[in-house]
Design a protein that fits this description.
By secondary structure, this protein is of the alpha+beta class. 47% of the residues lie in helices and 18% in strands. The strands form two sheets. A six-stranded antiparallel β-sheet has the order 1-8-3-6-10-9, covered by helices on one side. A four-stranded antiparallel β-sheet has the order 2-7-4-5, with no helix packed on it. It binds beta-D-fucopyranose. The site of beta-D-fucopyranose has 8 residues, from strand 3 and strand 8.
Length: 299
Amino acid sequence: MTFEQNEDPLQPGYSFNANFVAGLTPIEKNGIYDFFVDRPEGMKGYIINLTHSGEGVVYQGDEVMNCKPGDFLIFPPGIPHYYGRRPNANRWHHHWIYFRARAMWTNWLSWPEKIGRVGYYRPPPEISDDLEKLFVQIVNTSQSLESYSEILSMNLLENFLIRRMQSISQNKKELKDPRIVLACNYITDILQKQPELTEDNNSFIEQVAQHVFLSSSRISHLFKEHMGVSILTWREDQRIHRARLLLQTTPLSIAQIAQSLGYSDQLYFSRVFKNKIGLSPKKFRQMTFKSWSAKIKKA
Ligand code: FCB
């Protein structure tokens, strides 16, 4: 018996029985595409997606991440897809490319920053525009009816992957600036040993500056240039990273965790956490335990 398959790749039921398919999924709140993509077995090929506007949320086992305009995600073959519009955003428009990889791309497709098994990449500001344009060009090329459009799309995709690799190796070189390494180590150290010192933002930057023998404005500028984010954002990311670990692996209360990370106001901590992770600390902990106990039951 044959059953009818969907002809629209944006709707469930499309076979993706192809080497290369790409498109734009324009999800609007309550619109026709406003549902969660749910593919528990994943796909045969890779998917890279780029958030164009609005925000999406991606669930990966215990982990949750929000994607914002300019974020690229890569889903390797066979991993579950569960994602959609972030509930408090009005839209999530994202471009995506589904492809079967060439053998020589393997290393270029393994992106080190990961949420579960989904790779994440945010290009440095100086190339982000070019990479986004190139990505959209790949999508458009693959949809054109001209001859050679599929092979040209593969060629452009290879171009995209190479440019990403180039930029990463340049960043690695830059990261060797010892003052930035020193500043990062110092910040991590303070967060662990004297979190209360992180309370006041200005004096915090001042301390980092003194530690690396530069003025506050010089280190702020240099830091942003090398790391792509400000000192305060980087510090916040480290704190939230630690918070996730403590929530998942210790019985400490949320107030204790907030305090141990230098947040004197627990509500403020919960707000920052929710903003970055998409769930409150309490919900995050509950979700982790739920999925662990499900795994333990299964085993
Ligand atoms: C579309 C989704 C998009 C991507 C492709 C492969 O239906 O909207 O995010 O998963 O399928």
